[in-house]
C-alpha cells in the first residue's frame, strides 16, 4: 500500500485535518502534512510547539488488526521515526527509542507521536500523528529536546518526511504480515535505558524500578526493589537524578 498525501500550510492540528478527511479512506490510507500547526497537540493533553521547518504529519489508515492491537502502532511508528532519523545521523546508535513512543538523539527528544482513533463507515480508523523536530526544537520543555539539524545540518523537513513515509510503510507492512513480535524485538534493541533504573510517573503516583522489558502488549515492565515486576500501561518515564 502507499499513503496518498494531502499537503497543507498553516493548520490547527494535522490530526484534526486528517479526521476531517476520513472519506478519503475509501481510496486507502493517506497522510496529511502541515507546514506549521497553530494548536498542535501532544500526549496527555499537552501542547506541541509547531513552528515551520519541522515535520507534522498524520498518517490515517484502517488496519486489518483488531482495535485492541492498535496501540502497537505507536511502537511501529516510533521505530519508523528512528529508522528515518538514523538515515541522517552518522552514528545510528545515538538514535534511541523511549517508552512509549518517543525518539531520542543523544538522550534528547527529537520526535513525538500521538495516536488517535476515529469512526469511518463502521470501521475504526487510526490517526498516527508524528512530529519531528527538524529545523527547531522547543526550549521550555521539562525534558531535554533536540532538532535533527543539530546532528545533520543539511536535513530538510521534506527529506525527513520522505524517509519517514518509506520507513513507516515498510514497518506497517511487516507488522500487518508478521505481528508485533518482530516490532517489539527491534524496538527493544533501540530502547533507551534498558536494564537501568527509571521512574515512571503515573497520574496518581510514581513507580521506581529497573526497566527490564517491553510486555507483548506494549506495557513497560519494571522490576522494583523487592524484585517484583510492575506493569506500566500508561505514563511518563524519567531517569532518576
Ligand atoms: C508527544 O510527544 O506528546 C506527542 C506529540 C505529537 C505531535 C504530532 S505533530 C503531528 C500531529 N498533530 C498534532 O497535533 N500532534 C501530532
TrEMBL record:
CDD domains: BPL (cd16442). PROSITE patterns: BPL_LPL_CATALYTIC. It holds the Pfam family BPL_C. GO terms for molecular function: ATP binding; biotin--[biotin carboxyl-carrier protein] ligase activity. Residues 1-176 form the BPL/LPL catalytic domain. InterPro entries: aa-tRNA-synth_II/BPL/LPL, Biotin_CoA_COase_ligase, BPL_C, BPL_LPL_catalytic, Transcriptional_repressor_C. It catalyses: biotin + L-lysyl-[protein] + ATP = N(6)-biotinyl-L-lysyl-[protein] + AMP + diphosphate + H(+). PANTHER family: BIOTIN PROTEIN LIGASE, BIOTIN--PROTEIN LIGASE. This is biotin--[biotin carboxyl-carrier protein] ligase. It comes from Minwuia thermotolerans. The lineage of its organism: Bacteria, Pseudomonadati, Pseudomonadota, Alphaproteobacteria, Minwuiales.
Amino acid at each position: 500500500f502507499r499513503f496518498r498525501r494531502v499537503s497543507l500550510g498553516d493548520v490547527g492540528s494535522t490530526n484534526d485535518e486528517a479526521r476531517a478527511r476520513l472519506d478519503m479512506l475509501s481510496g486507502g490510507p493517506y497522510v496529511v502534512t502541515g507546514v506549521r500547526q497553530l494548536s498542535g497537540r501532544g500526549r496527555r493533553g499537552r501542547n506541541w510547539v509547531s513552528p515551520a521547518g519541522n515535520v507534522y504529519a498524520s498518517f490515517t489508515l484502517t488496519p486489518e488488526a483488531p482495535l485492541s492491537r492498535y496501540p502497537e502502532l505507536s511502537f511501529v511508528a516510533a521505530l519508523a521515526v528512528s529508522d528515518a532519523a538514523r538515515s541522517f545521523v552518522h552514528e545510528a546508535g545515538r538514535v534511541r527509542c523511549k517508552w512509549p513512543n518517543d525518539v531520542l538523539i543523544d538522550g534528547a527528544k527529537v520526535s513525538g507521536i500521538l495516536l488517535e482513533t476515529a469512526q469511518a463507515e463502521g470501521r475504526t480508523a487510526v490517526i498516527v500523528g508524528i512530529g519531528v523536530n527538524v529545523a527547531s526544537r522547543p526550549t521550555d520543555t521539562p525534558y531535554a529536546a533536540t532538532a535533527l539539524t543539530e546532528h545533520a545540518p543539511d536535513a530538510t523537513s521534506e527529506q525527513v518526511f520522505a524517509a519517514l513515509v518509506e520507513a513507516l510503510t515498510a514497518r506497517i507492512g511487516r507488522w500487518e504480515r508478521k505481528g508485533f513480535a518482530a516490532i517489539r524485538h527491534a524496538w527493544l534493541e533501540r530502547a533507551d535505558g534498558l536494564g537501568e533504573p527509571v521512574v515512571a510517573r503515573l497520574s496518581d503516583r510514581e513507580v521506581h524500578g529497573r526497566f527490564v522489558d517491553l510486555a507483548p502488549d506494549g506495557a513497560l515492565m519494571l522490576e522494583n526493589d523487592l524484585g517484583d515486576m510492575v506493569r506500566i500501561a500508561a505514563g511518563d518515564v524519567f531517569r532518576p537524578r
